[in-house]
Each structure stands twice: as structure tokens, then as C-alpha cells.
Amino acid sequence: MKKRKFNFMWFSFYAFLLLIGASWYFVIGVEKASLTELFSNENMEYASKFFKGLLGVGEEEIAFLNQESWSDAFTLSIETLQMSIMAIGFSTIVMFLTVIPAARNVADGSMTLSKKWYRWFVFGLIRISYIFSRAIPELVWAMIVIFIFKPGILPGAIALALHNFGILGKLCAEVIEDTDSRPIRNLASSGANPAQILMYGVFPTVLPKFLTYILYRWEVIMRTTIVVGFVGAGGLGQQFKLSMSFFHYTEITLLLICYLILVFIADYISEKSRYFVK
Amino acid sequence: MSMFSFDLHKRKILTVFLLLLFVWSLLGVKWQDGVIHASGVGTASEIFMAMFTPELSANILALAFESSWITLAYATAGMSLALVLGLVFGILASGVLATRKSSRTFLKGSFRGLLGFMRAIHELVWAWLFVASFGLSPYAAIFALAIPYGGILGRIFADMINDVPNEPIQALQAAGASKLQCLFYGYLPSVKNSMISYTMYRYECAIRSSAIMSFVGLGGLGYQIQLSLDDLNYDEVWTFMYFLTIIVVLIDGWSSLLRKRMAK
After folding, report:
1. Cβ B25–A82 below 8 Å, yes or no?
2. Interface of A with B in 166-195 (CB under 8 A)
3. What is the CATH number of the domain that holds B212?
4. Residue B234 belongs to some domain of the structure
5. Measured in whole angstroms, how far is the alpha carbon of residue B233 from the centre of its chain?
6. I need a labelling partner for A6 at 20 to 30 A (CA). Which of A72, A204, B50, B156 fits?
């Protein structure tokens, strides 16, 4: 056994080196990307112009010194906040609806002491949906969802929820798999029905852990809200893209400041509550 | 302190508070104007049905393989840079190299702040900034991936190093090891496995991020998905989405195998 472990680790190590080498070869050798060209005088001029634009050097209207723009940006920030909460709410609801049959120890009946033939089938189906949901990035979901819903924060929240329920589901199903099954079997053998097992056996043990994961995903969602906005799903991101297309660079600075503030607030809340739950 | 020590009513208050937050967020939508496009339901069912009939013609498959490779290559190149950034900044931010208490506080504070800034901005926003300032180049995608991922890796690595139990390090110090020797023979060996598993997890995320880099005009699976969506060619969209799923599942499988082997 020891020899095999050794081999697999080294195999992985060399496979990685090979992948990294091949990737850089592809980027530099095949795509002919050159670093020196990136820092050519012409590009440096563009870059300095762009950054001067962001700082509002030589501009007449500077958005981040303008009170009206700040209040507009504030409204957008609140919208973005609502979008993130809605997204985590949706994915939490879907996660709760699906997580129980998605746990391996529920599927094989060891948790509730009852075997049903269809359990493995439901388990597989939900797990496949989880894998699929998390493999597709939020932005791609947003591009699809925007075909169906009118622009606004709802499609953004749905796209974010579509990506995150798979991640939440997987994490939370693993929490259920790791719970001690003895108290629950005790409940089952004393005649509790599935709903009672859930309410008195499973939920009290797993909810704190669920909450940490939910907060952690909320923090990630906050950071991604700006991205789904790019395709017209509302909030700061949508305005960001509009300002970018109109070359209103000082507005971009303002929006980035608001975005950073939101992200840091989310970071802070989730960090603090993690200590709290510990 | 555990959530169990919460009194029952306090937990109820927390639940009600979270529910109220959710309801408040729902108020942000203008439900009365209708939220679905006039043809939205039809489009939705069309997209859904296309799921079962992905386009599998030879040239689309060839295109899918090529774009998968581009996505994978950008992700790997970006990740290799991020790993270097994360290791260097992570070790500095953990403060284990500092000799005095004051310099340790300074190191920790400044590098943690820098890492926080790197990861606060989403990779796509970085990509956009790079493309806007330097123009289209694969480096824009690679740097845009490397910066936020380096920030996340660095922060987690620093946390891991700080969580190493003190005794083995003290033993090394008592034997006369320098700070650098403590790092290489004490800290790094004890966190190596967790570092590898976390990096693998982030690698999987990097694949997804690399796929959406197309949004700023850089090639890959996301670009193809976008093109097919613009043509309303949903069958092709699903082909590319399945390819993306397969890559992610493969990386995920690899990392869980690796984790199992390391645990033994």
C-alpha cells in the first residue's frame, strides 16, 4: 500500500509539472503572447491614460466627488445587497429541499434504519444536479437566465442561486454524512416518523454547520454580484458595464469603491459570525 | 462557544431575523410589472429540451476540445503564478519569519491587507481592468486569475501556518534552528497536505473562472457558449457546458483521490 501511495503522489506531481509546462508553452509558444509587448510604450500610454481617467485627472465632472452620484451609487449598492441576500435565500431553500436524500447515509438507509429501493435513484439524480450546477459558472447561468427573465436583480439572484445551490448542497450533504448516526437511529427505533427524525435528530446537529457554510457562500456571492450584473442582471455590475461603455471612468472608480465596501462588510460579518458559531 | 448554548428563543429570533432579511430582499423586485419576458416560458422550455439533444457533430466537438484546452491552459498558467504569489505572500503574512514582535505585527498587518485587497476584486473585474489598460492578450487572463487566487491562497496558507501547534517549533528552536530552518523543517512539512488539498480545490474554481474570461474577449469555453447563445443555438450551448462539467469533474476526482492517498 505504501508503495502505491508514493507512486500516485509522484505521478500527480509530474503530471502537474507537465500541465504547467504545456500551458505556458501554449501561451508563449503557440499564442505568441509576449510580455515585452504588453509593456510597450504605446500600451503604457494607454494604461496611464486609463488610470488617469479613473482618478479623474483633467476631467470636468468627477463622479466620486459629486453628492448626487454617491446617492445613486448608494441605491445601487442596496440593490446589490438585496440581490445577494435573495440569491443565498433561494439556494438555501433549494438546498434544504434536496439535501436529505443527497446524503449517502440516508440513501443506504443506515441513518433511518429503513431501506427503500428508490433512494439510490433519487440520490444519484440530486448529486448529478449538484455537480452540474456548480460546474457552470454564475456568469454563464446569468447569460442563459437573462433570456427568460426581464433585466433586474431577480435574474441575477437566480443565476447566482443556480450556481450556489450545488456547492451548498454538496457541502451540507457531507455534513449530514459526518453526523453521528446513533442518536438518530435511537429516534427511529423508538418510533419517530421521518419528519420527526428530521426535526429532532438531524437539524439540531447540522444547522450550526449549515449556517457557517451559508454565510461563507454569501460572502462569495457578494463578490460575484458585480459579475452577473455585466450581462444585465442589475445592481452595481450593470451600471459598471454601462459606465465602461460610455467611458465614464470616474463613475467606475465610484462603483468600485462601493463594491469594495460591500465586499469588506460581507467579509467582516461572515468572519465574525464564524467565530461566533465556533 | 456553540450555537447549542443558544437558548431556544434566541435561535428563533435569529431564524426570524434571517427570514425577514430574505423577505426584504424580495421587495427589491418589481413583481407587479411581471418578471418574465413575453416569450420567456417558451424560451425556457426550448433551452431545457436542448439539454437532451446536445450538438455532437465532428466540427463542434473539435471546437469544444480546442476551447477546453485553452480554458485549461489559462487556468493552469494562472494557477501556477497564483501558487508562487500565495506561497511568498502567505509565508510573509503569517509573520513566522519576523524576529521581533513589532516587525511581526507590521508584516502581518501589511501583507494581510495586501492579500485582502487582491482577493476582494473579482477576477473578471481584474481582467476588465487589464484589458482596458493593456489590450487583449492571454496575459490579461493569466494575471487576472493569478492576482485574486494568489490573494485567497496566501490568506489561507497564512492561516494554516499560524495554526501549526507550537511544540514542534519550540523543539526546533531549542535545537538552535534559525527562523528559515524552522519554516522549512517545522511549519511547511506540517501544513503541506492541507496546502495541496486547498490548492486542488482552488484549481477547480480556476477552471470555471478561466472559462468566463471570454467575457472580456479572451477565448475558451465561455466564449463559445456566448457565441452559441447569441445565435440562439441552444444545442451547441449544452455541448460546451457538458465539456466544462467534464473538466471540472475530472479535476474534482483527481483532487479527492489525492486527498484520500494523503490521508492514509
Report:
1. yes
2. none
3. 1.10.3720.10
4. yes
5. 29
6. B156
DSSP A131-170: HHHHHS-HHHHHHHHTTTBPSSHHHHHHHHHHHHHHHHHH
In terms of residue numbers, what domain contains B170? 71-263
Question: What is the pLDDT tens value at each position of chain A, 278 positions in all?
Answer: 455 556 788 888 888 889 888 888 888 877 776 777 767 777 777 778 777 877 777 766 776 777 788 888 888 899 899 999 999 999 999 998 888 888 888 777 776 666 777 888 888 899 999 998 988 888 888 888 888 888 888 888 999 999 999 999 998 988 888 888 788 888 888 888 877 887 888 888 888 888 888 888 898 899 888 888 888 777 888 888 888 888 788 888 888 889 889 988 888 887 777 666 65
Overall domain count for chain A: 1
**Number of domains chain B is built from:** 1
Yes or no, beta carbons of A140 and B212 under 8 Å apart: yes
- For residue A264, which residues of chain B lie inside 8 Å, CB to CB? 116, 120
Flag whether A12 is in a domain.
Answer: no
Out of A5, A81, A144, whose CB is closest to B264?
A: A5
Give the torsion through C-alpha atoms of B201, B206, B212, B216, to 10 deg.
150
Q: Do B138 and A27 touch (CB under 8 A)?
A: yes
Report which secondary-structure segment, H or E, holds B121: none
Answer whether B3 sits within 8 Å of A211, measured CB to CB: yes
Decide if A5 is inside a domain: no
Q: Is A223 on the interface with B (CB under 8 A)?
A: yes
Domain hosting A123: range is 66-277
What's A85's domain CATH number? Answer: 1.10.3720.10
